């Protein structure tokens, strides 16, 4: 851009500011008063017109404008039903009001707007100050009523809070602590809403309640999308606490995570794994997952496979396996143990052996381990061959290797400890210890219905 062009644009801008063209005047020039507006074809224009009719229109408008401080200085002229308004008004709202009144008078054909908005700084400040004074007087006059409404609202807030803390009352409705607490919170919210409605009724501002509820709905929708996972976990917590799929210390498998249940809170379910680790699973996942509860039915079946040589008598091997399990401590006599032929292999026949354990008295893993040891020992003593692939590996070494230590036979005490099948309470004791020392909520209650 050249210097001459830049100076021309600058002079044009200065000339526009020097002529005091306000926004309203620019609007009029672009598409307002300067443009001819189309006539209103919906209004029927009478054929007759008189000076008396124009006089009545002018007198009627003068009587209306005289009652309004903002329109007292407006001049009115009427000719053949065309009203021309002139003079100064203090704001655009007053201009619009004057035009509206003129159009509503009977017999008016058209309204010509020659009004000028007074943009004097002193006048605007005076009008603003007058409005502030009026608002201040109205506020002082309404202050006792406002204080009364505030007192009613606070009383209902405190009363709702006091009732919501009476958990014994809600425990009679629902024995579940989580549901009882939720009912208390809902009751508190109901009292708050009642107090708000009564306070707004005293202030004659009940229309404001709809605006508040609408804004609260929009905010709640936005927050709901933002914390969707949290809300989902909270709802899942409610459903899980209503009908408990497990109890404290139940051995469960949830979403391929196995452990004893330690607690169920409003966000997650906590398990303690067999190796002592804490596993935290979101309740939304727990609610949708496939849950295997190993403790709900205390009788649990174990199984293991044994291969015997194809030359052996299978019926003898099956009978010996079942008799061995029936004589073992920890294996339940009813349901009886079973030994079934599972598969016929190339070099052996695979037997699948079943037995039942009462988990309240014996450890499942230990009984299964003893059952495998006992069946192997019985087969060895009976001469039943259990063939397996054998690979011989010989390594020639130049240096001499020390002779291997000769294994010693286990003592009686070691044998009894290895053959012990009593229940192992290690993890259960950890859960109970955590229940005693922990201060977190637990939604698992013995009184809740069980699935």
TrEMBL record:
It is found in: Cell inner membrane; Cell membrane. PANTHER family: SMALL-CONDUCTANCE MECHANOSENSITIVE CHANNEL. It comes from Thiothrix litoralis. Residues 397-451 are annotated as: Disordered. Its main location: membrane. It holds the Pfam family BON. InterPro entries: BON_dom, LSM_dom_sf, MS_channel_C, MscS_archaea/bacteria_type, MscS_beta-dom_sf, MscS_channel_2nd, MscS_channel_C_sf. It is a multi-pass membrane protein. This is Small-conductance mechanosensitive channel. The keyword Membrane applies. Residues 397-411, 433-445 have a biased composition (Polar residues). Belongs to the MscS (TC 1.A.23) family. The chain crosses the membrane at residues 140-164, 176-200, 206-227. Residues 1-23 form the signal peptide. Homoheptamer. Residues 412-432 have a biased composition (Basic and acidic residues). Mechanosensitive channel that participates in the regulation of osmotic pressure changes within the cell, opening in response to stretch forces in the membrane lipid bilayer, without the need for other proteins. Contributes to normal resistance to hypoosmotic shock. Forms an ion channel of 1.0 nanosiemens conductance with a slight preference for anions.
């Amino acid at each position: 851009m050249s210097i001459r062009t830049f100076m021309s644009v600058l002079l044009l801008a200065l000339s526009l500011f020097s002529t005091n063209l306000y926004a309203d005047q620019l609007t009029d020039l672009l598409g307002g008063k300067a443009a001819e507006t189309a006539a209103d074809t919906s209004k029927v224009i009478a054929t007759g017109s008189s000076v008396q009719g124009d006089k009545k229109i002018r007198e009627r408008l003068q009587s209306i404008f005289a009652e309004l401080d903002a329109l007292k200085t407006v001049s009115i002229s009427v000719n053949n039903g065309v009203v021309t308004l002139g003079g100064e008004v203090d704001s655009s709202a007053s201009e619009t009001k004057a035009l509206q009144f003129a159009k509503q008078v009977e017999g008016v054909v058209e309204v010509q707007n020659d009004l000028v908005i007074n943009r004097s700084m002193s006048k605007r400040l005076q009008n603003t100050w007058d409005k502030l004074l009026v608002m201040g007087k109205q506020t002082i006059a309404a202050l006792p009523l406002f204080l009364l409404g505030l007192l009613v609202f606070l009383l209902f807030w405190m009363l709702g809070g006091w009732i919501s803390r009476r958990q014994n009352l809600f425990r009679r409705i629902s024995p579940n602590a989580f549901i009882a607490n939720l009912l208390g919170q809902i009751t508190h919210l109901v009292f708050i809403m009642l107090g708000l409605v009564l306070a707004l009724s005293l202030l004659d501002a009940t229309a404001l309640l709809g605006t508040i509820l609408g804004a609260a709905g929009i905010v709640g929708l936005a927050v709901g999308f933002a914390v969707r996972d949290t809300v989902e976990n909270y709802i899942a917590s409610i459903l899980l606490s209503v009908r408990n799929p497990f109890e404290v210390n139940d051995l469960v498998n949830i979403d391929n995570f196995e452990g004893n249940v330690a607690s169920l809170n409003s966000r997650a379910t906590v398990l303690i794994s067999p190796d002592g680790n804490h596993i935290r699973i979101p309740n939304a996942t727990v609610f949708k997952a496939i849950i295997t509860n190993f403790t709900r039915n205390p009788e649990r079946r174990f199984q293991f496979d044994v291969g015997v040589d194809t030359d052996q008598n299978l019926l003898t091997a099956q009978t010996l396996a079942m008799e061995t399990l029936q004589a073992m401590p920890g294996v339940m006599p009813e349901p009886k143990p079973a030994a079934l032929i599972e598969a016929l292999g190339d070099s052996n026949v695979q037997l699948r052996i079943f037995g039942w354990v009462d988990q309240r008295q014996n450890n499942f893993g230990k009984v299964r381990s003893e059952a495998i040891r006992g069946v192997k020992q019985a087969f060895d003593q009976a001469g039943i061959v259990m063939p397996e692939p054998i690979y011989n590996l010989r390594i020639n070494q130049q240096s001499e290797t020390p002779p291997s230590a000769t294994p010693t036979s286990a003592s009686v005490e070691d044998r009894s400890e290895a053959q012990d099948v009593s229940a192992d309470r290690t993890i259960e004791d950890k859960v109970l210890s955590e229940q005693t020392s922990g201060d977190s909520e637990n939604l698992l209650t013995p009184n809740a219905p069980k699935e």
